[in-house]
Backbone:
């Protein structure tokens, strides 16, 4: 029973780590995509510049997927040879996934807002596209910090539990 | 209506904002030595002024801007509070044309919420039920005033008041705070304008009460009472409201007041410059184009009539970009 609950926590954590940032990235790229389409409809030559801005909020989805794979891999849920976990250990792995799940979701949406504002900047001043990308890219810092936190936590837990 | 439904529209508007005149360009046009030089500079920025008749080019500019804005609106009714004033102007034109046995076609205001021909037809047939609901009461009142007393000024003012009241109602219904703020500001400016005129022409309190709407910016009864005591009292009253600047502008001239009203409206919308979605950037763009066209009209008219640049400079509205 305890092992089953532990597996539930581990898999649920992995699902959230991949799902929430994925949802955030989907919403984010959609938002920037709409803004980008608005600009390109008036000036198709700006396609390349606004495309970079649209791609920025997509990274959180990839980070989330990475954490999900690492969780399933480190805990050996994926690949076989999984040891018996207590439910507390399962919960600890679940907690390790949370930074990426939560920060990934919100940072994708906020990065998309910064990127959509950047699309407006590119529309008015195409030469300032570098600045627009920088403003949006800075939001990425927090997604990267969350990614590192989750990786370090997963790493620490596997060492502690001797997996 | 979700604000995010406007993301595409706002980006389109941002692309079009680069086509608006900047202060520097406007100063250049104002400083042009001749009408022809000013027209040439404007034509370089997308106007199509041919000869001295610049009105069609300005109309075309406004039409183009409205076509763009209306094509980007996910729901056109969200703009009704801004457009409905033109419907009431069309009602006034239709009424006057009907009573003077003239064609109202030449007096059409656009863009409007309803087809001007529908309004004209209902007025000619004196069929109140055919009119859109917001226009019915105003039509009935104005028709009675015009046929029974021939008091055109009162009829106009009654229709103008109804226009402002419906503008506020439609803005409330649109559920965008910025639209309500626009409607209330326009209504307050219209109230101040009518109060100023009433004091100037010594109108009775009963007349004033029928013309002033409840804009929410200041207490209606108090304002009317202040106006009843004379111009100084009205200015003193306004000085203690958000519209203190209006009193200062009116002391200078009615033209300065008109400029103050336009500038105030645009200042409300200035924050929309950083919005990535919502209806505010579309409304701001529409008012910005109207202000630009107003400025161009003032400058070209001055160039045609040889007015000094300094006089014109005082009348030029602030720009959005």
Residues:
């Amino acid at each position: 029973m305890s092992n089953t609950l532990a597996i539930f926590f581990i898999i649920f954590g992995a699902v959230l780590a991949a799902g929430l940032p994925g949802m955030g990235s989907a919403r984010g790229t959609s938002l920037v995509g709409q803004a980008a389409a608005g600009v390109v409809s008036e000036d198709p030559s700006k396609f390349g510049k606004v495309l970079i801005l649209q791609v920025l909020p997509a990274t959180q989805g990839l980070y989330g997927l990475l954490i999900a794979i690492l969780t399933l891999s480190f805990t050996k849920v994926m690949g076989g040879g999984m040891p018996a976990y207590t439910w507390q250990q399962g919960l600890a792995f679940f907690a390790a996934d949370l930074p990426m799940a939560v920060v990934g979701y919100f940072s994708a949406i906020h990065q998309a807002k910064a990127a959509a504002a950047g699309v407006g900047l590119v529309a008015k001043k195409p030469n300032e596209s570098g600045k627009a990308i920088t403003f949006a890219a800075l939001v990425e810092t927090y997604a990267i910090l969350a990614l590192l936190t989750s990786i370090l936590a997963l790493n620490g837990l596997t060492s502690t539990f001797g997996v | 209506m979700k604000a995010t439904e406007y993301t595409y529209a706002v980006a389109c508007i941002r692309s079009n904002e680069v086509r608006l005149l900047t202060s520097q360009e406007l100063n250049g046009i104002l400083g042009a030595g001749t009408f022809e030089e000013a027209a040439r500079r404007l034509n370089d920025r997308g106007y199509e002024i041919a000869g001295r008749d610049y009105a069609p080019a300005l109309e075309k500019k406004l039409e183009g801007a409205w076509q763009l804005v209306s094509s980007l609106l996910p729901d056109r009714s969200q703009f009704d509070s801004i457009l409905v004033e033109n419907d009431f102007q069309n009602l006034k034109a239709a009424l006057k044309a009907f009573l003077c046995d003239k064609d109202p076609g030449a007096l059409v205001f656009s863009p409007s919420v309803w087809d001007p021909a529908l309004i004209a037809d209902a007025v000619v047939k004196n069929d109140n039920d055919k009119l859109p609901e917001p226009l019915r009461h105003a039509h009935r009142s104005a028709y009675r005033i015009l046929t029974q007393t021939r008091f055109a000024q009162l009829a106009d003012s009654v229709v103008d008041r109804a226009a402002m009241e419906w503008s506020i109602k439609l803005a409330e219904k649109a559920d965008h705070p910025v639209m309500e703020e626009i409607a209330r500001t326009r209504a307050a400016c219209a109230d101040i304008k009518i109060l100023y005129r009433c004091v100037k022409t010594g109108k009775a309190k009963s007349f004033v009460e029928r013309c002033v709407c409840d804009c929410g910016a200041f207490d209606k009864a108090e304002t009317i009472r202040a106006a009843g005591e004379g111009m100084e009292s009205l200015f003193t009253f306004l000085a203690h409201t958000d519209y203190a600047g209006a009193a200062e502008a009116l002391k200078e001239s009615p033209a300065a007041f008109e400029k103050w009203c336009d500038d105030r409206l645009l200042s409300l919308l200035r924050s929309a410059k950083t919005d990535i979605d919502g209806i505010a950037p579309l409304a701001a763009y529409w008012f910005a184009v109207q202000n630009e066209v107003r400025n161009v009209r003032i400058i070209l008219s001055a160039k045609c009539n040889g007015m000094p640049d300094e006089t014109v400079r005082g009348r030029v509205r602030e720009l959005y970009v």
User: Anything to note?
Assistant: Chain A has a mean pLDDT of 94. Chain A has one domain: 2-160. Chain A touches chain B at residues 31, 34-39, 41-43, 113, 116-117, 119-120, 123-124 (CB under 8 Å).
